[in-house]
Amino acid sequence: MTLRRPARIAVLSCCLVLFSGCAAFRTADSDLDAASRRITTQNIALTADDTSVPKAAITPKGDFLVAGQSVALTPRQREDLLAYRAQYIDIAQQGIAIGHAGVDAGRRAVAPLVFASLFGASDQTIDASMDKRLAGVRAATAKLCDRMPALMAAQRQLATDLPAFKPYATLTQKKIDDCRQDALHDASVADD
What we know:
Elements: H1 5-41, E1 44-46, E2 56-58, E3 64-66, E4 69-70, H2 75-118, H3 123-145, H4 148-161, H5 173-184
Antiparallel strand pairs: 1-2, 2-3, 3-4
Helix pairs in contact: 1-2, 2-3, 2-4, 3-5
């Protein structure tokens, strides 16, 4: 079978889109892997809602730095900071795993969606297909949001036990509710 020139151009265009998409997915996976390594080995940066408050960090050894300066800690405060850091890292690692699942869903969707578009599928059909592919990612993200109340409780406890931490205890119930709502929200293009 010989393809006519317009068909060859269309097939070539689709192949180019797929190849460029593959590179983008590899980059996204690589970036997520790098973030996973960094979060466990580097300081965890903390910011306050008030922009005049200096940035802070929790080091892998449990030091608490404000504006780069170490805050004096009791052994109990250091232990609590390390426990909070471990909880934060665990949630971040779960988020990174969800990110990988999202990249994989996108990777698996590219070819079918390109061909569906090429052969005249409606935007609604394409959006519905992508929403179906992302349902598991959204559900996993909602479960991640369900872990936030425990993180908020840990922040509040740290703010009580270590007054210098108080400006950085910024997680609120509204942020948690927004997280869950955003995770489950139908983010289809048709709604934008």
